[in-house]
Amino acid sequence: MSVPASDQPLVLGIESSCDETAAAVVAGMQVLGAAVATQHELHEEYGGVVPEIASRAHLERILPVIRAALAEADVKLEDVDAVAVGHRPGLIGALLVGTSAAKALALGLGVPFLGVDHVHAHLVSGLMRSESSTDAETPSLPALGLVLSGGHTSLYRIETLTRPILLGRTIDDAIGEAFDKVASMLGLGHPGGPAVERLAAEGDAEAFGFPIANLGRHRLDFSYSGLKTSVRYTIHGIPGREDAHPGAAPADVAASFQSAAIAAVRRNLRKAIAAHPDTRALLVGGGVIANRSVRAMLEEECRRAGLALHLPGTAWSQDNGAMIAALGGLRLAEGGSDDLDLAPAATTRDDRVTQQPPAS
Ligand code: KG4
Ligand code: ZN
Asked: Are 164 and 234 part of one and the same domain?
């Protein structure tokens, strides 16, 4: 095998929480090899992820994906020093496949097993490097963390990368889910985020003043269901009312929706920065980060507040095994590991702080 330049342990990371089966080998924050098998085509005709189909597909694909990641890293299974898996949150049947595979491999190899939180793993995705150089980014802490994905919209305070503290999360739909539902209302395919972004580029973002939920002056939670309903009424009309305006130009609806969805993130980000004036960096992750308007907003807000921005490239913004391995490696470096009876869990378990008023 080609020994990596770094003397960091080799961690195999496995991801199976939703509709990507993924694996990667990392040394520290350096990604040596990665593979992903997406299931988008299996779920497309249903307009969303079907849990039982997802579990079966993970079962069929997990071993080939792990082999592909090891082959790309030019690493033999016996050389792996630890096995990490995203064991929560996600679809329980899907999580079981990855968790069982990771436990079996760790037991067989006699190496530590680590279960990591999938949402927390998204936060380190902007720190990973693919090149053979060892120039992994070390974030300046304390930082804020933001995960924008199909299942999560969460804001964190990060003093230690392995223990982010939740500041706020969506109380209903996730931002990516809102993109997907609006795409479906507009007759676009699944996943809908990229299709909505493409259509929005041709529309007027000020055509409709869609609502941006405000859950309280100091509250950092999100809500996307009101925005989604408002879009539905704009497209189909308000039930029982004659004065609705169905026939709205789809590109204008897409552009106005995208603008409101992003404005909600901008507002909470500004509130979080005001409440935590010692913040030095912003770590972001999740599939919605692929959206160019989202990236531009994040760059603008970080410039404005003087924060270093750690944005993942497109390959690492979607679900992947490398972020799981990277976070597993950080826990391993702290002496952490888990027992083999660690159960997968559908929900996340976050430490949460009471929200503070902004410093004046
Ligand atoms: O992180 P991810 O791959 O899976 C979850 O953990 O949820 O995120 C997938 C989500 C989907 O909702 C998808 O529509 C959204 O990310 N997405 C986008 C874009 N690309 C992917 N949303 C808006 N604009 C995009 N360009
Ligand atoms: Zn994810």
From this structure: yes
